[in-house]
């Protein structure tokens, strides 16, 4: 069985440029059942990282994404799968499925 690591980077406050978008936590909660239902043959590992609170014991990889969000290069919520950038800001299902089809 293939394992897919899904990480959502976010914060409690909705991203300023993401008006009407779901919160980071809502995006995280939405992705879990969706991916399990859509790809039952895959095993998923889900992680939520609060970019303002979960700042200790992060990998360099995680830290780089957080810095890019803080420098406004990327928006949150930001979704990575198997350490690859998938989508940020207003996360769309098509971005997620496009990544999964390449796996």
TrEMBL record:
Superkingdom: Bacteria
InterPro entries per the UniProt record, alphabetical: DUF1462 (IPR009190), Thioredoxin-like_sf (IPR036249), YuzD-like_sp (IPR038218)
Pfam families: DUF1462
Protein name per Swiss-Prot or TrEMBL: Disulfide oxidoreductase
Species of provenance: Staphylococcus saprophyticus subsp. saprophyticus (strain ATCC 15305 / DSM 20229 / NCIMB 8711 / NCTC 7292 / S-41)
């Amino acid at each position: 069985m293939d394992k897919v690591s899904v990480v959502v980077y976010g914060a409690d406050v909705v991203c300023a440029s993401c008006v009407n978008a779901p919160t980071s936590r809502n995006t995280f909660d939405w992705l879990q059942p969706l991916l399990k239902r859509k790809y039952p043959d895959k095993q998923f590992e889900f992680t939520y990282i609060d970019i303002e609170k979960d700042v200790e014991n992060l990998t360099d990889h995680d830290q780089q994404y957080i810095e890019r969000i803080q420098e406004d290069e990327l928006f949150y919520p930001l979704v990575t799968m198997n350490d690859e950038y998938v989508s940020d800001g207003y996360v769309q299902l098509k971005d997620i499925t496009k990544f999964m089809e390449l796996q």
